[in-house]
Amino acid sequence: MRVTVAEDAVLMREGLVALLERFGHTVVAAVGDAPALLGAVRHERPDLVLTDVRMPAGDDDSGLRAAVTLRTDDPTLPVLVLSQYVQPVAAEALLDTGGGTGIGYLLKDRVADVTGFAAAAAQVAGGGTVLDPEVVHQLVRRRRDPVSRLSPREREVLDLMAQGRSNGEIAELLVLSGAAVSKHVRSLFTKLDLPAEAGGHRRVLAVLAWLRSGGPG
Questions:
Q1: What are the tens digits of pLDDT across the range 153-166?
Q2: Burial degree of 59 (CB within 10 A; 0-12, 13-18, 19+)
Q3: Which residues carry this modification: 4-aspartylphosphate (predicted)?
Q4: What class, spelled out in words, does domain 146-212 have in CATH?
Q5: Do domains 2-142 and 146-212 have the same CATH topology?
Q6: Buried-state track 106-115, b at ≥16 Cβ within 10 A, e below 16
Q7: Which of 11, 52, 104, 111 could cross-link to 124 by cystine, CB 3.0-4.6 Å?
Q8: What span, in angstroms and rounded, lies between the C-alpha atoms of 111 and 133?
Q9: Rounded distance between C-alpha atoms, residue 37 and residue 49, angstroms
């Protein structure tokens, strides 16, 4: 199996390379950032991409975004993502590509189980889906009607957002100040786990969450 590895921590990257080679795989590229990952994959056409979510660590989700880009370009490209902790939004973004097949999302702690990690890599490369138990737990919690986390006032604001109302119109209809409406909107975005990176799309994503929950009530 030909593998491209992306990990900004040098020791971790070298460890992953050694581990993969121990199981008879060929690492065709080992890189430390998202742009290098995109270039390496497009040049080498590997059988599996193994990437960290955050590169550099603690910065942003550039590794995950690169993985989503690669999967969008080629939905059949197997990708196994490693992360220090569970990021449900990132996991869902990845699972939404390619019909959810040939995808893996594991916590880095799982690499300590060498045999299990190697088996997971092979399973993803073969078109399977491998999710860390903690990732599954977080996704289940996330999918339990996220709208139920909202306060009654936040639900009213979301209901009006779903009707296409602007913040100014919501303020007038609910007899609130513009600042109060903005505060409620920010709060409901947070409770619905909508990332700041989504920008203006967060209003759309919030409405989708409202629709999945069955609407008002």
A1: 998 998 888 877 88
A2: exposed
A3: 52
A4: mainly alpha
A5: no
A6: bebebbeeee
A7: 104
A8: 14
A9: 9
- The CB density around residue 93, as the number of other CB atoms within 10 Å, is 17
Cβ distance 47 to 55 under 8 Å? no
Q: Could you tell me the fold of the domain covering 2-142? A: Rossmann fold (3.40.50)
For the ranges 47-56, 68-77, 160-169, which has the lowest average pLDDT?
Answer: 160-169
Which structure tokens are listed for 4? 């491209």
The answer to whether 86 touches 134, Cβ cutoff 8 Å, is yes
**Domain-wise residue ranges, the chain:** 2-142, 146-212
Q: Which residue has the tokens 């097949």?
A: 101
Q: Which tokens go with 13?
A: 């990257």
At residue 216, does pLDDT exceed 70? Answer: no
Rounded CA-CA distance 46/40 in Å is 9
Torsion sign, CA atoms 10, 16, 18, 24: negative
Q: Give the pLDDT confidence score for residue 203 in this predicted structure.
A: 77
Q: How many helices (H) and strands (E) would you count in the chain?
A: 10, 6
